[in-house]
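Appendix C: a fully annotated inverse folding record. The material below is reproduced so that readers can follow the format used throughout the book. The structure is listed first as tokens, followed by the designed sequence.
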């Protein structure tokens, strides 16, 4: 996040502001949208309320022409996967004990 630990400890910078900047760089809202006039999303506990053109906090749903459009469905999923070059990393430590 490019934030100095001392700045955080000395409260010279707000973690909430940094979090919002990082999310904004990924075209995601900094906080769950709660528009007064919009469509309620029931995908998760954030219960976003999206006005026209607005994207949900998770980025999976968007209000397009008054309709909630989802990037996922029972048939389509989004996934992020990578090849772990060291399969015996700390995440698998519990298996060995």
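Designed amino acids, in order:
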């Amino acid at each position: 996040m490019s934030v100095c630990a001392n700045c955080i400890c000395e409260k010279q910078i707000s973690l909430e502001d940094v979090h919002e900047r990082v999310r904004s760089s990924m075209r995601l809202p900094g906080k769950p949208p709660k528009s007064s006039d919009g469509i309620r999303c029931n995908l998760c506990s954030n219960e976003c309320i999206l006005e026209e053109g607005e994207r949900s906090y998770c980025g999976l749903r968007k209000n397009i022409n008054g309709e909630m459009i989802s990037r996922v469905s029972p048939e389509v999923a989004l996934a992020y996967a990578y090849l772990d070059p060291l399969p015996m990393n700390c995440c698998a430590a519990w298996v060995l004990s």
